[in-house]
Amino acid sequence: xxxxxxxxxxxxxxxxxxxxxxxxxxxxxxxxxxxxxxxxxxxxxxxxxxxxxxxxxxxxxxxxxxxxxxxxxxxxxxxxxxxxxxxxxxxxxxxxxxxxxxxxxxxxxxxxxxxxxxxxxxxxxxxxxxxxxxxxxxxxxxxxxxxxxxxxxxxxxxxxxxxxxxxxxxxxxxxxxxxxxxxxxxxxxxxxxxxxxxxxxxxxxxxxxxxxxxxxxxxxxxxxxxxxxxxxxxxxxxxxxxxxxxxxxxxxxxxxxxxxxxxxxxxxxxxxxxxxxxxxxxxxxxxxxxxxxxxxxxxxxxxxxxxxxxxxxxxxxxxxxxxxxxxxxxxxxxxxxxxxxxxxxxxxxxxxxxxxxxxxxxxxxxxxxxxxxxxxxxxxxxxxxxxxxxxxxxxxxxxxxxxxxxxxxxxxxxxxxxxxxxxxxxxxxxxxxxx
Length: 435
Ligand code: LLP
Description:
By secondary structure, this protein is of the alpha/beta class.
């Protein structure tokens, strides 16, 4: 495996072939997000096979891609939901997800949290303040069942910006505050049902395994303290390689490690413990791609820039994290039979020098030209690995470009529009005219 930019990345597995890419561009225009039903289902099956246990549960971290059709596709598979805001929970309910299948883990207390919990949404307190607020309202809420998210003191992310454990992360209740958590729970007669940890996105599997042990120790402390925890949720963060030289986590290997830890735990403690995981990236990242068009080609003495009609509006990850996404040129016609190549910086359409799809992997500020198939204006460009944190995490509306549509490629080869292209009107309709 080479990490040299001189290696041409293969076309995203979302597509059967380049004819299909051209057909999508012709039917739906560019830029357009495309998801493969088959790959989404494949990933769902793999996540569900993480461990074999009847009580094992997978929750989809819907922030990765909240389109209602995707939520329902996973629901059909028996996957439940991790929501990270009150609005996400409401969106899932509106998509038809039963409230009881949603775990709400939010950095702030949603305004409508009482109503959501009354509907059956499970609440995961992420701070002492959240725990106290839940406790104070528990009479109105009608349940005393609660989860707590603990920062186990250690984290691991693909970048520092996606690390959510350890002292530099504000997510969850610091693990040394367990006594305070226990005091609250006792004082307000709450029922602690679930302990939750999530240490980051794109985590190192070895750190994940260590924090699995640390999380089990936390559960043990609660159990010894007389709190009958029934579930440990280990969060998401399962590493996914988007470029061919990047490694993906071996879910089976990590799963069998976790299973063994749970079995040892149960043997020691004598009580069964249910496992939940919350993958986002793993379920959707490589099941999605963007099709865009090359609108211009510009040269400086140093670089040749392909100017595409996508970029940070649709995929913010390269700009935010120097994330590497596979890029493939699909020529409009099958000219170029000799498969000539060129070295290109691929740029977005925004009036912003940071709108670059090929940053150096060490810094979003440095350019890293890639070797691609020789390109011309009006050829297409496919950006792979864009099923997660792209349509759901856009730099939306910048330069007044409306949101791109989303298309689901069905298993039978048909194509369904699952979100229409946005409009300029949607960008301005909430403005209030005072001048
Ligand atoms: N559970 C919780 C509580 C989370 O906060 C997250 C992600 C997940 C599960 C799912 O993590 P995943 O399996 O997707 O790594 N925008 C970044 C990722 C931020 C993730 C935030 N929380 C990216 O584009 O990589």
